[in-house]
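User: I'm writing a short methods note and want a consistent example. For Steroid 5-alpha reductase C-terminal domain-containing protein, I'll paste the sequence; you return only the C-alpha cells, no commentary, since I'll be parsing the reply automatically.
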Amino acid sequence: MTAAASATADIPTAEKALNGHDSIFSNGKVTSTVGLLQNAVLPSFGLHGGLSVIAYGIARSTNRVEIKDYLWPSGMVINAWWTAVGRHSLAGPRAPALEILKSLSYSQKLLLGAVTAWGARLFYRIVKRSVSRGKDDVRYENVKQQSGFWNKASLLFALEAAFQTAISLPFTLPFRADSVTGFTGAPADWAQTIRLTAAGIFTAGLALETLADWQLDSHKNKEEGKQQSDLLRSGVWSIVRHPNYFGDSLVHLAFPLWNYGSQLFTWSQLLGPAANYFFLRWIGGDRENEASQAERYAKESKSKHAQFELYQLQKHSFWPSLFEVANPWTWVVSGMGAAGAAAAYFYESRIAAAATAVNPASLTLGETVAGLQ
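Assistant:
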C-alpha cells in the first residue's frame, strides 16, 4: 500500500452515493454519544475554541468586536477542510493534500465545495462591509461603552465557538468515518431525488443571500446623501424582512439533506441547521438587528421608523407567508434553486454514463471516477 493510500484509507468512499441503498438502517454499528463527543465534537470544539481565542485577542487589541464575525464563516470552512483533508495530510504516513482531496467521494467533494462556496461568499461580504465602514458595526459600538465589556465579551466568543461546533456537524461528520460509525441514508429509489432536492435548496438559499446583500448595497448607494432615506422593502426584501438570514438557513438545511441522499447521514447532523436557526433568530441575527434598527431609526428618522413599524406588520422577519407565492421574487429564487437541482441532475447523469461505459454491470462510484478520468 502506498503512503497516499494508507493515509486516506480511513476516508469513507461512499461507493453507493449514486445508486443509494435499500434501507435507511444500512449500518448496524452506531457510535455512542460518548464516542461521538470524543471523536467528533470535542476535536471540532477544540479547533473552534482555539480560533476564537485568537480572534478574541485580535478583537480586544484592535477594539473591533466584529473580528468575531470574520471567524463565523471562515472558522467553519477551516474546520471542514481540516477534517476532510488537513488532519490526514499530517498523519503518518503523510500524503499530499491533493491526493487526499482526490480520494474523497463524489458526494463528499460536492459537500466540501458547497461549504466553501457558502463560507467564501459570506466572509467576503463581512470583510467588504467592515472595510467600507472603517469602524465597528453600530451594534457593537454601543455595547462597547458598557463597563467591563471586553471581559464579558470573552463569553460571547466562547458561545459562538460552541454554536459553530454544532452548526458544522453536517459538514465534518461525513469526513470522520475513521472514528464515527452509524452512517445511513435514503432508500435507493429516493436517494437521487433527495440529493437533487438538497442541491436545489442550497442553490436557492445561496442565491437569496447573494441577492439580498446586492440589493441592500444598491439601495444604500442610491439613498446615500438623501436627507430622508427610505427603508428597503422591494426585491427579495419584499419576501421577508431578513432574506439573507432565511437564505442562510436554507443553505444549512441542505447539508444534512444532501448527506441523507448520499449514505453519509447521522441523526446528530440535524443539530447543525437547528443550532444555526436558533442563533439567527434569537442570539446574533434578526432579533439583535431589529432591536438596533428600531433604536437607531427612532433617533435618526421618524419617517424611516414609521416605515419599519409598518414593515414589521406586513412581513414576517424570517419565514415567508403563503401570500408570497404571488410574489415574483419568490419565483426568481425558486427558479435559481431549480437550476441548481437541474445542474446536479445533469452532472450525475454524466457520471453515471461514464461509469456505465467502464463497467455496465456495476455502477459504483469507484468506477465512476475511473470513467471520468
